[in-house]
Specification:
single chain, alpha+beta, Immunoglobulin-like, 1 helix, 18% helix, globular, Carboxypeptidase regulatory-like domain-containing protein, signal
Amino acid sequence: MNFSCHFSRCARFVLACCLASLVLVGCGGSSDIVKPRGKLLVAGSPYDQKTSDPLMVIFYPVGTAVEDTYPAIINDDGTFEVIGRDGDGIPPGKYAVSIEPQRDNLKTAVAVLPTYKGRQSSLVVEITADHAEVPPIEVTQ
């Protein structure tokens, strides 16, 4: 066996192992991402985005230096899902959940609890890989 042939086989084997490990590492990151889901209620009934002013649900990380915000997609039936920036979800952790009107000039005012506004929202949830369901949120007083 010639040395250059043996070296070429070794180099190909090492290259193949490196590529395989990169693929496996890339696939493993998604297990740390979840898509929290929940439901908005107005006076005990599901929030109806068609007949009410549009609301925003925003998740703010709590207790970290991360300044990211994660808006939710709200469906017509009041259910919502937080899909994150890439559509894959958000990291597990504690989040302050803010519920705010999308505009200041509301025509049918939904009196959102003022303590649910912004990063200082009193509504805090813990999202884990095993528990991504947010309890129903009553948005009115």
